[in-house]
Amino acid sequence: MAKPFEKINDINKMKELWKIAVKVHHQWTVISNNKEHIELIFVDANGTDVHVILPTTLKATFDSVLFVNNTYTVTNFLPQINDLMFKTSEHPFVIRFIAGTRVSDINKHEIPGKRLNFKPFSEIISGNWRNDLLVDVIGLVEEIGYKHMSAGSKKQQVNLILKDLV
After folding, report:
1. Where is each Replication protein A 70 kDa DNA-binding subunit B/D first OB fold domain found (predicted)?
2. Contact, 143 vs 160, CB < 8 A?
């Protein structure tokens, strides 16, 4: 008998063998110390999301498999405490792919896209938000402020003035 799917909400450190049906909501590449790894946001059929980390050693294996808006069955991954400085998900854990992680059933699941939870500017200004959690905002770029280079880096900082459209 096939192992049933579990929900992202149920992911914890109490076990190692998981089987989830997910949709890739977002994907990006992180470069650190001249090494690249992939990070993603998975969402399940209940709309629950979780941050996912694919280490450098597995990047080549999954880079040509995982795409935004595709659905997958993902098994055998490592849940770890979400201690990231800036969290993309409220889930207390992140999923880390390991050598035994398997991805299959491409686009065989019916999973809607992640619901965006827009935060009004008034709540942000009043401090009514978690400062370690990234939030969704929608607004109009009213003005582009000054640009400057970060000291000792090639990174550029650009300040934007946003206008709330609510």
Report:
1. 5-104
2. yes
